[in-house]
Write a structure and sequence with these properties.
Strands 6-7-9-10-11-12-13-14 form an eight-stranded mixed β-barrel, surrounded by five helices. A five-stranded mixed sheet has the order 2-3-1-4-5, with helices on both faces. A hairpin with a 2-residue loop joins β2 and β3. α2 packs antiparallel against α3 and α8 runs parallel beside α9. It is α/β, with parallel strands linked by helices. It contains 16 helices and 15 strands. The structure holds ligand C2E and magnesium ion (2 copies). The site of one magnesium ion (MG) has 4 residues, from β11.
Length: 417
């Protein structure tokens, strides 16, 4: 029997009991950090021994009715039946943590293991073995990313289910929408342009967030189609503005498309078809994505820059780009992530950091753009820090591109960015 079949069968049994009125249970995915290192340092035999020890330790720390199943490399699924509330789950989680207080291998090669856990509770977090396990694994990833011992499922963190064919049809049949969010010049207090953001609203599925469908597109083969669609739709709206509007429009590019040969030429063609000047367009690329394939990204970005298109490093401050990376990118703008901007009014240290990032951007001949400005005092602080541009709910929420264009066209003369 496969690990998965065994785990699903155990959960299904509890679901059947629950249907007969037998209450709540929990599933905990446990990753035992250290097992892989033991295998690599001390050999496969010791590695297997340590894995067996880990399992026995967990079983001994729990009640006899609890089950520990091997789930894969370094990981286990623990099924905890008959729980009365969340506190009972926490008790089990605490015991699992202390199960790893002693080294996992014998005295000749002592090596410490550490458990990281993702927790889901039935019925709160799911109603099928598949859903419960997926959510528990997602919670485990969250715990590991945050450096915490455990995390409960946060339903919003679980990606919404997207049907490939639905999404492909929506792109092919032009059923996505473009929203524009204004970008404001903080020094002159004038509109500078907008960022183009895709939306997918469907009669069957309601509204799906780009935070869900962009990663889905990146992981399937739809990212190129999405990027083409987004770019053309953005250019179409730009072309409908009065001439000499003086605004600049940013669109998001996933570096996954950088590997496509002829991409830059395609972009130049699209600009000439719509009669849009390259200098009116800014390609936004996220910092994290850039670092993933540095050489290719630098190559493509340089060629894009040569055409006259602006380049923005998006979400700066959330990834791990170092100063030496920044030196290589031909970027014209640095977009400081909203997670940093949010705290500048309350946290002196973050404020100093943002001030320094703005100076750094200027020293590298880039303009600084602040994301996520949600109140006047944050806007004032940033203007005082000499931040060039700003974006956020306080300055304007994303709105249908047609509304943005109509409003701007009514307010002549144009303002310049
Ligand atoms: P992003 O490029 O960093 O875009 C900014 C996001 O922050 C947008 O979310 C925007 O609605 C949100 N935002 C703006 N101001 C505020 C604020 O004051 N407070 C808060 N809490 N949020 C604010 P959105 O539209 O959900 O987009 C999420 C991400 O999806 C974007 O992040 C971008 O990376 C990606 N994305 C959106 N459209 C496209 C697209 O057409 N193609 C690609 N490749 N990615 C896209
Ligand atoms: Mg962006
Ligand atoms: Mg951003």
């Amino acid at each position: 029997m496969l690990n998965r079949d065994r785990i699903f069968a155990a959960i299904q049994e509890l679901l059947d009991l629950a249907a007969a009125g037998e209450g709540c249970f929990a599933v905990v995915f446990v990753r035992v950090l250290g097992l892989r290192e033991i295998r690599l340092r001390f050999g496969y035999e010791r590695g297997e021994q340590a894995e067996q020890n880990a399992r026995t330790r967990m079983e001994q720390s729990l009640r006899p009715i609890d089950q520990v199943h091997h789930a894969g490399d370094e990981s286990f699924a623990v099924v905890l039946p008959g729980l009365r509330n969340r506190n009972h789950v926490l008790l089990a989680v605490t015991r699992l943590v202390s199960a790893f207080e002693l080294p996992l291998v014998d005295a000749s090669a002592p090596w410490q293991g550490r458990a990281v856990m993702g927790v889901v509770v039935f019925p709160e977090h799911g109603r099928t073995p598949d859903e419960l396990c997926r959510r528990a694994e997602t919670a485990l990833d969250i715990a590991q990313r945050r450096g915490e011992q455990y995390a409960f499922d946060e339903s919003t963190a679980v990606p919404t289910e997207i049907i490939y064919e639905d999404f492909r049809d929506a792109i092919e049949n032009n059923r996505l929408q473009i929203h524009f969010q204004p970008v404001w010049n903080l020094q002159t207090n004038c509109l500078g342009g907008a960022e183009s953001l895709a939306r997918w609203t469907d009669t069957n599925n309601g509204t799906t967030s780009p935070a869900d469908f962009v990663p889905f597109a990146e992981q399937s083969d739809l990212i190129l189609a999405l990027t083409r669609w987004s770019l053309n739709a953005t250019l179409r709206y730009m072309a409908s503005l009065p001439p000499a509007h003086g605004l600049r429009f940013a669109f998001n590019v996933s570096p996954r498309v950088f590997a496509k040969p002829g991409l830059v030429e395609e972009l130049i063609d699209a600009l000439s078809i719509w009669g849009v000047l390259p200098s009116a367009l800014i390609a936004e690329v996220t910092e994290t994505a850039l670092v993933n394939d540095l050489d290719l990204s630098v190559q493509v970005l340089r060629r894009l820059r040569e055409t006259g298109i602006g380049i923005a490093i998006d979400d700066f401050g959330t990834g791990f780009a170092s100063i030496s990376y920044l030196r290589k990118f031909p970027a014209t703008e640095l977009k400081i992530d909203q997670s940093l901007i949010r705290d500048i009014g309350t946290d002196e240290h973050t404020a100093k950091l943002v001030r320094a990032v703005i100076s750094m951007a200027h020293a590298l001949d880039m303009e600084a753009v602040a994301e996520g400005i949600e109140d006047q005092s944050t806007q004032d602080l940033l203007a005082d820090m000499r931040c060039d541009f700003g974006q956020g709910y306080h300055l304007g929420r994303p709105e249908p591109a047609a509304d943005f264009v109509a409003r701007f066209s009514m307010q002549q003369p144009p303002q310049s960015r």
